[in-house]
């Protein structure tokens, strides 16, 4: 994709400001992206089931529960495998596709609904690998006294955009995100904290406000991604032309 002219600075205020502008201009397109992403983000909960003895024979029956344990074990095992496959092989495509829609809006291009499923046609393996690796890295980081997990989540926030926008491989996207976010850690963390309060504010507005809040949050992070990418490209061009980086 050609480099676009982009004048926003990689700051919290600029990201929120352009996120607000993007939300107003493409609200209904991005609302669909938020709804679809929300469905697939929490989709694994749909397949959770709590068993009791009454579920099989109903109330008022006495029976030997051990007789049914092989059936329960088999059903739970198959369900767990299905949920795992869903989380690893399907959900990332829609989540990364939603991120691409927000990036399109930030670039003042009408978001394309086909972006939600384009990952099944293009760069599918890299989407799955990138999502899995980032999840493992962040979880391990949180296990290691939480702070490393927060750092990893901040430094790797660009991975979905790099995979979808630049068609990078999973490992390459992780390395690039880690490198390009150097020096922006507090900005990313600050936007994350601000986003938390925006989300809470949306909840307080009769819950319906959650949708505009999520659109604003996602558009703001897409703006921050584009601003960092553009600044890095501009600095690289200055270095290539032997001009001082200001």
* Oligomer status: single chain
Mean pLDDT: 86
Structural class: mainly alpha
Strand share of the residues?
under 5%
The count of DSSP E runs of length 2 or more, i.e. the number of strands, is: 0
Q: Report the radius of gyration as a whole number of Å.
A: 21 Å
Order of helices and strands: HHHHHHHHHH
- The end-to-end distance, rounded to whole angstroms, is 26 Å
Helix content: 55-70%
Flag low-confidence runs: 1-5, 46-53, 55-59
Sheet with the most strands, sense and barrel status: none
What is the general shape?
A: globular
Count of individual helical segments: 10
Write a brief caption for the model.
The chain has 246 residues and is mainly alpha-helical.
Give structural notes.
With 246 residues, the protein is mostly helical. It is built from ten helices and no strands. The chain has a domain of 145 residues. The radius of gyration is 21 Å and the shape is globular.
Observed structural traits:
246 residues; mainly alpha
Layout of strands and helices, then pairs:
Layout: H1 12-25, H2 27-41, H3 54-57, H4 69-106, H5 124-143, H6 147-155, H7 159-165, H8 170-180, H9 185-204, H10 210-240
Helix pairs in contact: 1-10, 2-4, 2-10, 4-5, 4-7, 4-10, 5-6, 5-7, 5-8, 6-9, 7-8, 9-10
């Amino acid at each position: 994709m050609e480099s676009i002219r982009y004048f926003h600075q990689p700051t919290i205020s600029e990201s929120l400001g352009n996120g607000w502008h993007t939300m107003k201009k493409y609200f209904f397109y991005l609302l669909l992206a938020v709804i679809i992403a929300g469905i697939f983000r929490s989709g694994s909960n749909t397949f959770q089931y709590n068993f009791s003895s009454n579920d099989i024979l109903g109330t008022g029956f006495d029976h030997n529960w051990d007789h049914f344990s092989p059936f329960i074990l088999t059903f739970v095992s198959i369900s767990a495998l299905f949920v795992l496959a869903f989380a690893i092989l399907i959900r990332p495509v829609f989540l990364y596709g939603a991120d691409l829609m927000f990036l399109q809006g930030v670039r003042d291009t009408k978001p394309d609904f086909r972006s939600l499923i384009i990952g099944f046609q293009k760069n599918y393996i890299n989407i799955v690998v990138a999502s899995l690796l980032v999840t493992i890295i962040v979880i391990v980081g949180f296990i290691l006294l939480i702070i490393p997990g927060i750092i990893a989540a901040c430094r790797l926030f660009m991975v979905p955009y790099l995979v979808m926008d630049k068609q990078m491989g999973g490992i390459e996207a992780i390395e690039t995100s880690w490198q390009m976010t150097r020096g922006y850690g507090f900005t990313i963390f600050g936007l994350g904290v601000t986003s938390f309060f925006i989300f809470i504010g949306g909840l307080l507005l009769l819950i319906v406000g959650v949708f505009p809040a999520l659109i604003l949050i996602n558009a703001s992070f897409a703006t921050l991604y584009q601003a960092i990418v553009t600044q890095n490209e501009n600095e690289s061009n200055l270095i290539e032309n032997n001009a001082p980086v200001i």
